[in-house]
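Hi support team,

I submitted a single chain yesterday and got back a structure, but I'm not sure I'm reading the token output correctly. Could someone confirm the output below corresponds to the sequence I sent? I've pasted both exactly as they appear in my results page.

Thanks,
R.
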Amino acid sequence: MTPGPTTAHRRITAPAVSFSTAAKAYGAVRAVDGVDLEIARGETVALLGRNGAGKSTAIALLLGLCQPDTGTVELFGGPPDEAVRAGRVGAMLQEARAVPRVTVGELVTFVAGRYPAPLPVPQALELAGIAHLTGRRVDRLSGGQTQRVRFAVALAGNPDLLVLDEPTAALDVEARHTFWESMRTYARRGSTVLFSTHYLEEAEAHADRILVVDRGRIVADGTGEELRRSAGGSRVSFDLNGRPAADLTLLPGVRALDVRGDRAHLRTDDSDATVIALAELGAIRGLEVAPASLDDAFLALTTTAYTRTETEAAR
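Hi R., thanks for writing in. Yes, this is the structure output for that exact sequence:
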């Protein structure tokens, strides 16, 4: 009988992140519902989903902040808390309070000192774009500056895996651009990065893979282009001009309907058949046909039947 790989060898070759049928419930709500996932070392992966989709719970499981009810979660072939204690994981979470009467430099220096092989503090501050704030008190910074301090704290331990939960929240356009430049610089060192975001364009621009989460499950895993193809077909838009929208879902090829004001947007697998049917109805005023967008893909993946009107939205 051939012996299996040793534990040490398995951990050297194991992926950075591994979920095996992991599940976590809060009462009747299955926040994470039997997730199977592997993230290779050196990958940059985006976690995309609506509020309540399960992203934050998945991150909590990954960081060892809670335990799965069933299944397993591993980092680098071992328990998450082991990787965290070894300084292999850095995290930037949404829920964090400013430390009073402590300067930025003091905070990052303190955190770095808790790790076995930290990133030099000046380098962490420079990467986060806050070297000029070294002497400022953390509790007197703006929201965007505080967010960058959290990034510096996440970098302080020189982690192999960087976990970022909504990292560009509260950042203006220029600060977001600077942040992503810093993140890419760190990723190029061979580190693994997992970030959650509500910004579809950020996911596509800065991740090797996009994981779409809905109702506690991963419903899509691929590049932005692969996700767009999964949406199917095209978007056909036109002015309703007062006509009812409900029957439009019955037209040939139509998979979903979105009504905004007096304009209907149809997602269709067969734009030619849809347009011909609209012409027969005399409903081609302001007609536009365009390829499916990443927004279309996201809506297609996270809803089984997405139909929204102003009346329904107001309920």
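A quick pointer for reading it: The longest strand covers residues 29-39. Let us know if anything else looks off.

Best,
Support desk
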